[in-house]
Amino acid sequence: MGCAEAVRVLQAYLDGETDEVTARRVVAHLDDCRDCGMEADLYREIKKSLARRERPDARAVERLRGFGESLLHTGPGDGGARISGG
Ligand SMILES: [Zn+2]
């Protein structure tokens, strides 16, 4: 699973709406990818705020938006991100 796919299913995963296979792939990616792991943490914070009917942290929302847009610009198979180690 790449970052674009992980981000696309991240919200559904946190809402418990993905199937087990997808959920496990997301977990594996979040474990592997620090960027997406941080995005997942941000989503959780925002969801918590919304659950309490508080306004989510504007900076967190802004960061998520920027991350999604950066993925759109790089696109898959563009030779951008390289995964080191293994
Ligand atoms: Zn990632």
Automatic annotation (TrEMBL):
Domain of life: Bacteria
Keywords: Transcription, Transcription regulation
Record InterPro entries: Anti_sigma_zinc_sf, Znf_put
Keyword Transcription: yes
Putative zinc-finger domain segment(s): 3-36
Pfam families in the record: zf-HC2
UniProt name for this protein: Putative zinc-finger domain-containing protein
